[in-house]
Amino acid sequence: MNTQINAQETNFSGLKLPGFLMLFLNTLVLIIIIGLFIWVAIDDTLSYTGIVAIIIIDAILFILNILGWAGFFQNEPNEARVMIFFGKYRGTVKDNGFFWVNPLLTKNKITLRARNLDAEPIKVNDRTGNPILIGMIVVWKVVDTYKASFDIDTTAHSSSVPVSGKAVIKEKMDAFEGFVQIQSDAALRYVAGMYPYDHTASNDDDSELTLRSGGNEMNEILENQINERLQIAGIEVVEARINYIAYAPEIAAVMLRRQQANAIIAAREKIVEGAVGMVKMALDKLSKDGIIELDDDKKAAMVSNLMVVLCGESNAQPIINSGTLYQ
Predict the structure, then answer these.
(1) pLDDT of 149-202, one tens digit each?
(2) What is the separation of C-alpha 50 from the centre of its chain, rounded to a whole number of angstroms?
(3) Which long-range contacts (CB under 8 A, 24 or more apart) does 248-252 make?
(4) pLDDT tens digits, one per residue of 195-239
(5) How many whole angstroms from its chain centre is CA 315?
(6) 291 alpha carbon, distance to own chain's centre
(7) What per-residue confidence (pLDDT) applies to 161?
């Protein structure tokens, strides 16, 4: 279950016109500018005052036309533009299409598409102090463009060399990815330290949650922990899951032997439990059907022989007793 993020972004409420309409008007103004320039160049009947007036009008139209071309932008699906007017946040445009806004607005582009983080396994200590290797996969996306733009510093990942618009966007998303990776690593270390790697002989409560057997519940805990750390950046975790977990190499062999010993002990317990039940059933059946009357010594001998046969690892070898039970 994802943690709800308190959004601070607002929809852009300023002037936003269809891009193709403004493209037509801007082109028309450009044609008028060229026409006025040609008129002044070829018409000898114009007075000095008229020429100056036309040149001033032409210059004003030229400046407005240059500024007008800077107001165009397009939004693809799952993209957003953060509008800033001389340092003041004016809202976010998430509509898809081709638009025109005030050319003096800074239009920072942020992608809202989901991204993957495949974290390399890290070495941590579980609750019992055993060193383990644990890795995860995180699927995340930006949901609050205000926090993503103004609440975290993305300049640390930027280079001093001037770059194009696409490169700026890539650097910004790389900065987000670095922030997600560091915070996810911290959350993973915290979760790994809260739970044991697996059930042990000293704590054989099968209902206790462990890193190895936690499954979806453990993934949900990890997801919530990462979401808590990413709220400040306006980032939401779509999915987080542990994709690799193992003992660290220095104790892997020891832990393997311990697991094998636990398995052998558990198997022996089952064998003994079954053998005792079978012996009891055999004695009860013999007594109930009146096949043979056994005193305590004979019962003890029979129990001993049956337990050896049922619990032994090798096949039983028959031995013929030519004497009596007491010789």
Answers:
(1) 898 887 655 444 444 556 666 777 788 888 999 999 999 999 999 998 887 655
(2) 68
(3) 248/123, 248/130, 248/131, 248/132, 248/133, 250/131, 251/130, 251/131
(4) 988 876 555 556 678 888 888 899 999 999 999 999 999 999 999
(5) 55
(6) 70
(7) 44
The residues that bridge with 119 in the sheet, in sequence order, are: 136
Q: Do residues 229 and 202 make contact, with C-beta atoms less than 8 angstroms apart?
A: no
Over residues 35-46, the mean pLDDT reads 83
**Structure token pair of residue 289:** 């059907």
Q: Which two tokens stand for residue 88?
A: 């003041």
Coil vs helix vs strand at 93:
strand
Integer Cα distance of 135 and 245 in angstroms: 6
Per-residue model confidence (pLDDT) at position 129: 83
The alpha-helical segments, DSSP class H, found in 164-295 are 165-194, 216-230, 249-289
Residues 6+ apart with CB under 8 A from 73: 19, 81, 98, 99, 100, 101, 107
255-309 per-position pLDDT tens digit? 666 666 666 677 777 777 777 787 778 777 777 776 766 666 767 777 776 776 6
- What is the C-alpha separation between 205 and 154, in angstroms, rounded? 47
C-beta atoms surrounding 200 within 10 Å: 15
Give residue 246's identity as a one-letter amino acid code.
A
Spatial separation of the C-alpha atoms in residues 200 and 88, rounded to whole Å: 58
DSSP one-letter code for 155:
G
pLDDT of the residue at 2: 47
* CA dihedral over 111, 112, 113, 117, signed as positive or negative: positive
CATH pick for 115-247 out of 3.40.309.10, 1.10.8.60, 3.30.479.30, 3.40.50.300: 3.30.479.30
Helix axes 216-230, 165-194, angle to 10 degrees: 130
For the chain, the structural domain boundaries read 16-104, 115-247, 253-311
Q: Is 256 exposed, middle or buried (0-12, 13-18, 19+ CB in 10 A)?
A: exposed
